[in-house]
């Protein structure tokens, strides 16, 4: 009796490439030696990448492991939730909420400027005193298994946008940490606070800050992201720094 395994290799490979990736690994790969070997062939994962539009030219490099590249592309998303204040402060922990506390405002805001992307409509704004908020990302819950993080160590890129009001000076702070399962800090990105001046045409413009963690230590299980600041003149209300469109992405980079 003829069965699916009797199909020509190229046709079987094409059929397997249509199966969802996790079913290939968790179910199909266990069927028999032939299927295991077919699922391990780079050509299968290259076909899946091409079918789903995962373009390696985006990273301007050759791919050493198409299976890892496929999974990293399929998982790629912003790991920070509610980055543009569309859901008020949901998913954010308010670590420091002094003065008149954090607030959400609509762009461009009083004495503000429009954001470079029309997709962003709101921002978080600080008051006088210290205003800091954070998120803690569990990488396993986000789909990134321990072996992937320890052996492949894909690039982790952090981006944030900040600006000042034209009529008041302010201070902006950012801290990002890669943490172990025991919350030990393995790597940290903590640039010097940015002090923005009153009546500055430059500081009122939205600016992006970014950093990519590469070749980090094994054992990364969490990412801690914290940002905020406050105004430098102690005015009641919301005259401090403005932040929005924050992101943390894990990308194939130079590792896949």
What tags apply to this protein structure?
256 residues; 6-stranded antiparallel β-sheet; 6 helices
Topology of helices and strands:
Layout lengths: L8 H8 L4 H6 L6 H7 L2 H10 L14 H10 L17 E5 L5 E4 L15 E4 L5 E8 L7 H7 L2 E9 L6 E10 L5 E5 L4 E3 L10 E7 L8 E10 L10 E10 L5
Antiparallel strand pairs: 1-4, 2-3, 3-11, 4-10, 5-9, 5-11, 6-7, 6-8, 6-10
Helix pairs in contact: 4-5
Walk me through what this model shows.
The protein is an alpha+beta fold. Helix content is 19%, strand content 29%. The chain is built from six helices and eleven strands. The chain has helices at 9-16, 21-26, 33-39, 42-51, 66-75, 146-152; strands at residues 93-97, 103-106, 122-125, 131-138, 155-163, 170-179, 185-189, 194-196, 207-213, 222-231, 242-251. The strands form two sheets. Strands 1, 4, 6, 7, 8 and 10 form a six-stranded antiparallel sheet that branches. A five-stranded antiparallel sheet has the order 2-3-11-5-9. A hairpin with a 5-residue loop joins strand 6 (170-179) and strand 7 (185-189). It is elongated and about 75 Å long. The chain starts with 8 loop residues before the first helix and ends in a 5-residue tail after the last strand. The mean pLDDT is 91.
Distance between the termini: 41 Å
Q: What is the succession of H and E elements?
A: HHHHHEEEEHEEEEEEE
Compute the number of strand runs.
11
Report low-confidence residues grouped into runs of 5 or more.
none
Shape: elongated
Structural class: alpha+beta
* Radius of gyration over C-alpha positions, nearest whole angstrom: 23 Å
Tell me the number of helical segments per DSSP (H or I, 4 or more residues long).
6
The overall average pLDDT, rounded, is 91
Strand content: 25-35%
- Helix coverage percent of residues? 10-25%
Instruction: Describe the main β-sheet briefly.
Output: 6 strands, antiparallel
């Amino acid at each position: 009796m003829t069965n699916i395994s009797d199909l020509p290799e190229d046709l079987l490979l094409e059929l397997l490439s249509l199966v969802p990736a996790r079913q290939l690994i968790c179910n199909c790969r266990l069927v028999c030696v032939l299927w295991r070997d077919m699922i391990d062939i780079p050509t299968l994962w290259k076909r899946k990448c091409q079918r789903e539009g995962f373009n390696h030219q985006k990273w301007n490099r050759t791919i050493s492991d198409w299976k890892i590249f496929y999974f990293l592309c399929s998982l790629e998303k912003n790991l920070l939730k509610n980055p543009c204040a569309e859901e008020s402060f949901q998913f954010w922990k308010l670590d420091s909420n002094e003065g008149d506390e954090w607030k959400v405002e609509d762009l461009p805001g009083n004495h503000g400027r429009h954001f470079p992307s029309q997709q962003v409509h709101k921002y978080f704004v600080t008051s006088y005193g210290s205003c800091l908020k954070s998120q803690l990302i569990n990488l396993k819950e986000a789909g990134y298994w321990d072996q992937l993080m320890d052996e492949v160590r894909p690039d982790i890129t952090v981006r944030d946008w900040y600006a000042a009001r034209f009529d008041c000076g302010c201070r902006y702070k950012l801290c990002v940490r890669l943490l172990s399962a025991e919350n030990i800090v393995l790597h940290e990105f903590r640039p010097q606070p940015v002090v923005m001046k009153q009546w500055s045409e430059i500081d009122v413009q939205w600016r992006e800050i970014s950093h990519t963690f590469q070749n980090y230590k094994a054992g990364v299980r969490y990412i801690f992201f914290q940002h905020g600041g406050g105004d430098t003149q102690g005015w009641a209300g919301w005259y401090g720094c403005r932040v929005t469109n924050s992101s943390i992405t894990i990308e194939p980079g130079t590792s896949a």
